[in-house]
Amino acid sequence: MEWLQQLLDYALHLDRHLLEAIQQYGPWVYGILFLIVFCETGLVITPFLPGDTLLFAAGILANSKGDGLNFWLLWVVFIGAALAGDNVNYQLGRLIGKKLFNNEKSKIFKKSNLDQTHAFFEKHGGKTIILARFVPIVRTFAPFVAGMGAMTYMRFLGYSIFAAFLWVAVCMGAGYLFGGIEAVRENFALAVLGLVGFSLIPYAIEFIKWRARKKQNRAASSNPIVEAAPPVGE
Question: What pLDDT digit, counting tens, does each position of 202-214 carry?
């Protein structure tokens, strides 16, 4: 359980750890940030890496003088990493997707994650690539599923470019905007929890709809079918 505590500490104090990385690695930190976002987006085995919170923390530090992060350079790094990850993931789905998820008992390549992303495509179509950008785990599997045949490459690329720009603008832009507020900087953990809560809204909506459908189906199955009375005179 120690690794779980360390992971939680990194998530809730990502701004502090990122500042330590800047002090230790200097300009090389841009390469580290690129690699983290690329892996979280481009490799189906690393959906646990920070995405939204990393962009948010980087935006906060970009608004702080002396922390050594350039806002516009971060913009290029994050958009480039997101696009590169999306495209690699799409090609992986195209090449090995169906073989990878054949094993029902796999702990890494869970079919439930794949089914969840398929459901997103069924409901939202091409907009899934945009919506998935703001939903942890789903954004890792969406390009993979698209590559498995859910979407042609040129259509996928158009949505991917738009989604990458929107994601970076919202998450890093929010960090930069609120980074100037002292209360946010001093309570980064609460800000992260709020960001995580925001990203879970789509899950909550789908869960509420699922419960409502389940309740309706249960009510329908419990009501006996009432046969129509025969016409008068028969």
Answer: 666 766 776 777 7
By C-alpha distance, which of 127, 129, 148 is closest to 140? 129
From residue 141, alpha-carbon distances to 31, 86, 101, 111, 170 in Å are: 23, 10, 12, 11, 21
DSSP state of 69: -
Residues 145-184 as b or e (16 or more Cβ within 10 Å = b): bbbbebbeeeebbebbeebbbebbebbbebbbebbeeeeb
Token pair listed for 137: 């785990």
Closest CA to 43 of 80, 91, 106, 8: 91
Contact between residue 82 and residue 167 where contact means Cβ atoms under 8 Å apart: yes
Greatest alpha-carbon pair distance for the chain in Å reads 94
Rounded Cα distance between 230 and 150, Å, is 51
Distance CA 166, CA 161 (A): 9
Cβ 92 vs Cβ 170: under 8 Å: no
Q: Per the structure block, which two tokens stand in for 36? A: 């983290």
| Six-digit token string for 199 | 């990203």
Q: What integer is the mean pLDDT of 119-142? A: 78
Please state the pTM of the whole predicted model. Answer: 0.71
